[in-house]
Amino acid sequence: MRSRGKAANAVSPEFEDLPAALLDWYARHARDLPWRVGPKARAAGATPDPYRVWLAEIMLQQTTVPHAARYFHAFTERWPAVDDLAAAEDGDVMAAWAGLGYYARARNLLKCAREVAAAGAWPKTEKGLRELPGIGAYTAGAVAALAFGERAPAVDGNVDRVFARLLAAKGEWKEEKARIAAIVRDLVPGDRPGEFAEALMDLGATICTPKRPNCLICPVRPWCAAHAEGEPERYPVKPAKKAKPKRKGEVFAVFRGDDVLVERRPDKGLLGGMLALPTTEWKEAGDVSRPVWAEEAGETLGEVRHVFTHFELRLDVIRFSLEAAPDGYDWMEAGTAADAFPSVFAKALKLAV
Prior knowledge:
2 domains; six-stranded mixed sheet; disordered N terminus
């Protein structure tokens, strides 16, 4: 029999035995997550709902399990099936998403749900899933493996870290990521691809963590070159991050009694379609121009800071009162608005009140 380990330049001639060891550990230590069908339920014949698998995977991008779980419960209670989400109002979904960040995901969530509802069923292959809005390589592999039992890899940051340590990967990170993806694809067992994906996720989240990995109880320690070297935290070896550019602007907390002035941001662009406080442009240099109705009013309360994917933002929070909403704006009860705002505007409103 061909050794997968040797073919993939792995760290042990017995690398191909790693999946069995990992799955044995997973059967005893799998996390209990609200979107997951655990090992016992799978053994009894239960199958995951692709809608719940997909929704969870989209929500888990760039956030933690506890944070995503709160949103997952709220979404599935309000929209229990993909057809329900497809029929939802855009504004309702964007408001429900507020606080999860990366709001293009919410727009793609709706697009994807509507395409699936229109087709009448989910694509059941990694390739078919890649054609849906907002589904990239990782999510396609995860949904294909978890929901449909396809022998597909699901390689996220946790899995990259696990295999970077297994391999003591010291090469250029882009090339190492491609090598890891190929190795994981080769190792996925045909009879249990979903559990293998979940096992790797759990291993990276609970044992092979970024800092202080618990190598003493790691089920794949016999294959780990980084552990043999004695420096598992050294891996993965990534290029230094570039400093993010900084932008500045002003945000206006405008009150009429208990109500605050809000606007709906344009559908396209950053925080597209979200409810927000009125704001100036966000610029790297130079003065910003206030709306005419805000030119002479306001008290500067302080500054809020927020880090987006591609830049850091600082906003001066200006508070004042108005009796009538300018054209294009509406009043909303401040507490309700805070719950619907993305984080940067929720921070500004909190400072203002």
